[in-house]
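Reopening this ticket.

The earlier resolution said the output was attached, but the attachment link was broken on my side. Pasting everything inline this time so it's all in one place.
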Amino acid sequence: MVARTQNAGFIELFTPKLITVLREGYSLDKLRADAIAGITVAIIALPLSMAIAIASGVSPERGLYTSIIGGFLVSALGGSRFQIGGPAGAFIVLVLATVQAYGLDGLILATFLSGFMLMAIGYLRLGTFIKYIPYPVTVGFTAGIAVIILSSQLKDFFGLTLPEPEPGPLLPKLQVLTAALPTMNIATVTLAVLSVALIVVLRKYKPHWPGFLIAVAAATLVAWRLDLPVETIGTRFGGIPQSLPMPQLPDLSMHKVLEVLPAAVSFTLLGAIESLLSAVVADSMSGGRHRSNCELVAQGVANIGSALFGGICVTGTIARTASNIRAGARSPISGMLHSLFLLVFMLVAAPLAFYIPLAALAAILVVVSWNMAERHQFAALVRSSKGDAVVVILTFLLVIFRDLTEGIVIGFAISALLFLHRMSTSVSVQSDSHALIDADEADTVGGSHRYSQDIRTAEDIVVYKISGAFFFGAAASVGSVLDRIGEAPKAYVIDLSEASLLDSTGASTIKGFATKAGRRGAKVYLVGATPQARRLLHVQGVREPEVSFEATVAAAIEAARKAQADGLKAQESARESSTV
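Inline output:
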């Protein structure tokens, strides 16, 4: 029976939302709404997929392969009703670095491997832990990525001619681009600036119009009609093919796998964060609830599929997912249709891509990077607290000047340390005869706030109440408070009813205190310990008769007094016996 329940839970956890939607009933009206949303998103994804691919150091059709194959699989197998998968701007930095280091074959292999890693994370149900990435870290690395994307588009935006390949690091890149400013192409700059202006104006006055596609179409028409001397997809890449390639396995030799493994891990980490962040945004907009682990499995399958067809990394895309919801999508079928519409474009209208100016695609990514920067959120975090300011700024700088993965890992580590510090300073020890003692002021005793005005104990019974998270970060401070207790008390009552957390270090601290008290002939009474805390205390050796567990402070005091009375009677009986 238990096995059946577990199997049912597992199946429910990893059932794609598409199956759920079909079970609920799918009508012609829903299909019509999904078709409208699908073509709307396809119009947005068409120029964006090519622009992201070019910025990532690969040919534009690879971005289309990613949206067609990967996007279809994300929607068909995912745990979100509205998620749109495809190439994302957040990956530009990593993909470009991987192409430069290992070539296109290395990129495809890293994408292939990251797919299996994402599936493993999902099936191991680790997707839940992705949500613990702190907000300052996500804002910091997103802003850093935005700066890098912007810098990567300056060459095509200004039409610069470089004597050597463009360097990857930001500062050397800016130096090379600055030195090449005399080669600036006025026609390219004009076309790029007008494209940005058109996108901004349409977004303000006609937000439901496909600004990206209109800007690209207008720039293409102007460049063609005026025969402007600007670089296009055709002049650089020779256009895009009119069909999908045959699926092909990447080079799976052990040497190559080990070589690209770090890149695959980076793709996995960023892909999991980005896709689940997009799913959360979709939930907030639609009122739904995604299945995070199912979503990660789908992202993994999508990356494997994309790699087999020569595509690049697939992830959930926040902007396209939001557009899908705003366009009236009703189910994952809208995302599947968006991929099919892109396929139709590639099959029918691919020759038109030959004339698209690279300046127009650079303009799209300039707008994307500006929107990605999250300037207001960044400024708010800098002002909110010193800890948040340190995390967001350090993550931002590490992403720009070091490495994206390093920025995320170090930012997360510092956030965790700051959290532990805050938790450790929130714990307090309070007694019936001493003031409330904060953990970060554990070496001082003072004040007038008493533990309880209702409890009046004898001088030889001391009551201490531990509040907050009693864990390894606070154990030393709490231990120092307990160690300052004098020799006089014959019984100690430790109230754990408001200890929100007790870990093995905290339990060990109580064990040490009880041992010291026992050497002085005193008894320790523990009050309010949860069953889980009692099990942990028992593992650490905190058990009868060294300590006694009681339900309330009053019961502990009564037990202590009774024990003392019994002790006095025993002493008197012993004296009388010795006298006789």
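Reporter confirms the inline version is readable. The first strand starts at residue 85 and ends at 86. The radius of gyration is 32 Å.
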